[in-house]
Amino acid sequence: MLSKNKIALINSLKSKKGRLKNNLFIAEGSKLFDEMLHSSFKTKFVFGKKDWLSKIENHHENSECEYFHIEENEMKKVSSLTSPQEVLALVEIPKFKYEHSEIEKELSLVLDRVQDPGNLGTIIRIADWYGIKNIFCSEDTVDAFNPKVIQATMGSIARVKAHYVDIISFLKNNPNGSNFPIYGSFLDGLNIYKTKLENHGLIVLGSESHGISQEILPFISGKITIPSFNDTLNRPESLNVAIATGIICSEFRRNLMIYD
Amino acid sequence: MLSKNKIALINSLKSKKGRLKNNLFIAEGSKLFDEMLHSSFKTKFVFGKKDWLSKIENHHENSECEYFHIEENEMKKVSSLTSPQEVLALVEIPKFKYEHSEIEKELSLVLDRVQDPGNLGTIIRIADWYGIKNIFCSEDTVDAFNPKVIQATMGSIARVKAHYVDIISFLKNNPNGSNFPIYGSFLDGLNIYKTKLENHGLIVLGSESHGISQEILPFISGKITIPSFNDTLNRPESLNVAIATGIICSEFRRNLMIYD
Fold this sequence. Notes:
2 copies of one chain form a homodimer.
Chain A: H1 4-12, H2 16-22, E1 24-28, H3 30-37, E2 43-48, H4 50-56, E3 66-69, H5 72-78, E4 87-92, H6 100-105, E5 107-111, H7 117-129, E6 134-138, H8 147-153, E7 161-165, H9 167-172, E8 182-191, E9 201-205, E10 222-225, H10 241-258
Parallel strand pairs in A: 2-3, 5-6, 5-9, 6-7, 8-9, 8-10
Antiparallel strand pairs in A: 1-4, 2-4
């Protein structure tokens, strides 16, 4: 049986306040557990059901994490998932750093007020797929270590760095003028299929309900749009922000491959 | 105060069985309500909070739906949303039909065991954006009239027809050979950025965990893949199925625009 302290610790990590205090986040399921163990992240505590523990313990005896047995009913109580898994791990929140000199040469994402945890997690997974290493999130973007975000990243949180920054200061301090394009996704920009897209710079994505904040607009050097192919009157207003991110990243990267 | 019967009716529509029995589905929020009202769907009952009703009633006095006042605490009890909205509507489930002659000329999606409601709703919204009118779902794909699917479609359910079919019979009865390509999304197919993609035919998408079923494979004439641009060893295994759908639809449609 799990101690009351451990149950309280797990539950505290469901809120940002608790995560900040304990510097830990929750990763559930054996897929995520494996990803964490093979990453640079430090897994501290592992709560496994009996069967899972008996399979796993021999393999990981050298690892630094502490293993605990958790009963089925305890797992149901602490899990954030609708179908609780066989393992729940607590992992140290890393300190992500970046160098301006690195950002200058690469493509990175900037997220302005993305509030849905599933969307943020999916965006981190997309970035990982397309070899994008850094995401800059506005301070009112949902916390990347929220359990729902972590689950949706499917492990990509260990490979893509999500930095929380004051977006305006970040854009002000950023690389030099015309050589460093700052793209923004809009409903009325240039047709993304017909626009030359550089493979370095920033791509700014706003929230679905509010779009990109007014204060950010002056920094945008390229307004881009995914055109709709629905020519009926009553067509959808927009795409989901994670879907738009996937399509935009695909468009930026396909050029690398086509003109290789 | 809402009658017990009405509360029981709303709650029954959260299960597929209840929806089949009553031939109604739930649409929550004023955005979805508006979409329903301006569609060919028949809205039967509308449960609105006081303020919302007072704004709306004059505008819709000719509509055929019945309006009811719902209290804040009643809305909380019947809503499927984490943040209940000001209106919840019950809409008749339509009978979707299609003609083979129509399908032959168009691009349609085929979904094999897509089980997450958010993913299905988002795929319906993507189809709507890219002018895809028909989606063929395997019988074990989540029900398109599940409240979570409906919310994620953001109204696109009124413009894209989701047909539930026996996929194998559907593929067997489908148009003629080489002039009707059947694409499938795989992890080991042809690079989608370098493959000629026709603007008619079917695109089959499997579930994230199982891929496309074995029995469907013989029907696939074009295996396609979204290549990853992450060349590190420890890279993600796949993209979320809705993200993959967005990127694939974008690739099929961009050709129409580029070679126009």
